[in-house]
Specification:
The protein has 15 helices and 22 strands. With about 475 residues, the chain is of the alpha/beta class. The longest helix has 22 residues. Bound molecules: nicotinamide-adenine-dinucleotide (NAD) and N,N,N-trimethyl-4-oxobutan-1-aminium. This is Betaine-aldehyde dehydrogenase. GO terms for molecular function: betaine-aldehyde dehydrogenase (NAD+) activity.
Length: about 475
């Protein structure tokens, strides 16, 4: 590490690190070894009060700045993130266990892209002029006020930026609560934003478990909540936000289908299945974990997939050669192990993997089940680990019906060389984000989010602006005003 994993203090409030050791201690565990690498403290009611008060106090002046000035600060922060990519990636690896091979290209880089993109958009946020005969009206695009972001543990830097960048670009203040499992990275995002010139109070980080998130969501001074997390948590947060009629963005879980037709390029399809199941040790919301393979190519697909999985380099996440790391925590590893046991009990064929590695930390083998049927638990529930379920299909109509027969709708993918079919299938998917002959791309220019239980709203792209701002309509009468009496 180029800098210590223990942060200066648990929280970042009003432009400075703040500590309150009376909050519940949260131990940060390096997933590759099980060692405690830092301890932070959950926010106390006093910390929650302090962060809400200071964020609200700072917001109006920020919203009143020209968009160019807000944008310049975000773009400066993006440059700083890129310049510090190595250190941020090392920290991300220690927070999550994801291999440096991944974090060095994916996490701070994606965060910087969001800061740069929304920094660029900040100056373009305008209303419109509406002519009404001689009278007219105009709209003003205004900030919502105080936004709360609540993060999952799989992409701590990316999530902190995907929520913070559009919020700040629109003139809001943000309080971000990272997952208690990965509390370190968001503090660095806050530090960088302030070094880049962000006025104090506008991007704050407070630590804690669900209760702290709940306290923030239900506070009447909070105007918007954006959650990245599981569907059960989404239900609670959405309900609490509804009580105050707050704006929400919900980025929730998935059980996405990936369809591989017999005319697909097999090597590309295997790559897509690997990227959609084993990247970040399978801890990706949009993963295509139900892999439907055309019957005629199933065995060829499984053979090539098994060969490719033998090339996975599993081990020390800091070794640049390592391409597959541990699960984020012992608890998550145990959850995934229980799904593997269920898959075997319910009659799925274990093609490869299935075991914990005999070494420190929370390592599981990349696991593939074949002959999975739609009713099996591993085909219905989000596992959030490196477990691929391969199901067979005969026809397009049949597989489309089965692919959509889920309460989730985050993502979906198709591999085929028939372009007409590819677009027909994409149109038929009940999902927010679809891939043709690819999987898990998430560039900032493209809206990302889910349908059905997988979410509400979109992150990234111009559409995110709609979720962090609101329109005010102003009517202007040019002549006298008549009234009935
Ligand atoms: N759609 C997406 O963009 C996306 C991205 C990443 C992860 N996810 C999903 O996140 C899940 C994994 O992450 P996780 O285990 O951290 O999820 P989780 O739902 O357990 O926790 C998410 C966050 O919510 C907080 N929280 C828990 N209860 C709360 C409450 N009552 N009020 C307010 N906050 C509360 C947690 O402290 C944490 O910060 C998976 O389901 C995954 O699919 C979705
Ligand atoms: C950029 N990825 C890898 C698609 C992750 C998006 C966020 C979901 O976990």
């Amino acid at each position: 590490m180029n800098y210590p994993t223990q942060p200066k203090a648990s929280h970042f409030i009003n432009g400075a690190y703040v500590e309150d050791t009376s909050g519940t201690p949260i131990k940060v565990i390096y997933p590759a070894t099980g060692a405690v690498i830092a301890t932070v403290h959950a926010a106390t009611p006093a910390i929650v009060e302090q962060v809400i008060t200071s964020a609200r106090a700072a917001q109006r002046a920020w919203a009143a700045l020209p968009g160019t000035e807000r944008g310049r600060i975000l773009r400066r922060a993006a440059d700083m993130m890129r310049a510090r990519n190595h250190d941020l990636s090392v920290l991300e690896t220690h927070d999550t266990g994801k291999p440096y091979q991944e974090t060095s290209v994916a996490d701070a880089a994606s965060g910087a892209d969001a800061l740069e993109y929304f920094g660029g958009l900040a100056a373009t946020l305008t209303g419109e002029h509406i002519q009404l005969g001689e009278d007219w009206a105009y709209t003003r695009r205004e900030a919502l006020g105080l936004c709360v972001g609540i993060g999952a543990w799989n992409y701590p830097t990316q999530i902190a930026c995907w929520k913070g960048a559009p919020a700040l670009a629109c003139g809001n203040a943000m309080i971000f609560k990272p997952s208690e499992t990965t509390p370190l990275c968001a503090l660095k995002v806050a530090e960088i934003l302030h070094e880049a010139g962000l006025p104090a109070g506008l991007y704050n980080v407070v630590q804690g478990m669900g209760e702290v998130g709940g306290a923030l969501v239900s506070d009447p001074r909070v105007d918007k909540v954006s959650l990245t997390g599981s569907v059960p948590t989404g239900r609670k947060v959405y309900a609490a936000a509804a009580e105050g009629i707050k704006h929400v963005t919900m980025e929730l879980g998935g059980k996405s289908p990936l369809l591989i037709f017999d005319d697909a390029d097999l090597e590309n399809a295997v790559s897509g299945a690997i990227l959609g199941n084993f990247y970040s040790s399978g801890q990706v919301c949009s993963n295509g974990t139900r892999v439907f393979v055309h019957k005629g190519i199933k065995e060829a697909f499984l053979t090539r997939l098994s060969e490719r999985l033998e090339q996975a380099v599993i081990g020390d996440p800091m070794d640049p050669a390592t391409s597959f790391g541990p699960m984020v925590s012992e608890r998550q590893m145990e959850i995934v192990q229980s799904y593997i046991t269920k898959g075997i009990e319910e009659g799925a064929r274990l093609v490869t993997g299935g075991a914990r590695l005999d070494r420190g930390g929370f390592f599981l083998q990349p696991t593939v089940f074949a002959d999975v049927t739609d009713d099996m638990t591993i085909a219905r529930e989000e596992i959030f680990g490196p477990v691929m379920a391969v199901l067979d299909f005969d026809s397009e109509d049949e597989v489309m019906a089965r692919a959509n027969a889920t309460e989730f709708g985050l993502a979906a993918g198709v591999f085929t060389s028939d372009l007409t079919r590819a677009h027909r299938v994409a149109a038929g998917f009940e999902a927010g984000t679809c891939f043709i002959n690819s999987y898990n791309d998430a560039p900032v220019e493209v809206p990302f989010g889910g349908a059905k239980l997988s979410g509400v709203g979109r992150e990234n792209a111009k559409q995110a602006i709609e979720h962090y701002s609101q329109l005010k309509s102003v009517y202007v009468r040019m002549g006298d005003l008549e009234a009935p009496f």
